[in-house]
Amino acid sequence: MLRKVNSCIIVTLIFLASAKSAVVFSDFTLTDRELTVTLSGRLPSESPPEGRSFLLFVNPDQFESPGFVSEPDPTGSSEFRFSGVYDIVTSSDGPERYGDYLLVEFDSEFTPDSEIDGIMSLSWSSPIFAPSAAKSLDIYWGVGSNLAEPAGVVEGIFLGSIRVPEVSSTIFLGLGLCSALGRRRRRVNNGF
């Protein structure tokens, strides 16, 4: 009996350790001018072939046209921020021959099995995204050894997928919340 309990404890600890190692993406927002996401967790112990300072947000249907990156060369000003240890150097989107993706380059390479925690915020003064063109985005760390080929984009280390919030569902959620608050206020004012 004690052996079974010890085995269960060991399996649980291994499961918890592996769960902690994954990068978690939360609080994701995508509008026509902004992409914001919170990253937390540990990068995999395997290193990508190239581009260890890159994070790529790729439409699962990589060659969808038009895609979620609607303006390959946005005009106007841009601002890139990351609240973690690293700083964002540049951001660029894939030319049509490479597919529908956004590449974010940080000021230094990420190291395998290291923590990555912070809020990433990218914004432009002119529209760059078409949020309704993708239902989700796949996130990769690094790229393949031959970025000149379309497959090089998705040969990095797959970190996970993020669901693109639908604009209409956000509007309905906001309307529902306003309605609920209005009903509550009416009940308080009527003495109920």
Keywords:
22% helix, Immunoglobulin-like, 192 residues, four-stranded antiparallel beta sheet, 33% strand, alpha+beta, single chain
Notes on the protein architecture:
The protein is an alpha+beta fold and 192 residues long. It has a single domain, classed as Immunoglobulin-like, CATH 2.60.40. Helix content is 22%, strand content 33%. The chain is built from two helices and nine strands; from the N terminus they run αβββββββββα. The strands form two sheets. It has a five-stranded antiparallel β-sheet with strand order 5-6-3-8-9, with no helix packed on it. Strand 5 and strand 6 (101-106) form a beta hairpin. The longest helix has 23 residues, at 167-189. Residues 4-20 have low confidence and may be disordered.
SSE topology:
Blueprint: H1 2-21, E1 23-30, E2 34-41, E3 50-58, E4 78-82, E5 88-93, E6 101-106, E7 118-124, E8 136-143, E9 157-163, H2 167-189
Antiparallel strand pairs: 1-2, 2-7, 3-6, 3-8, 4-7, 5-6, 8-9
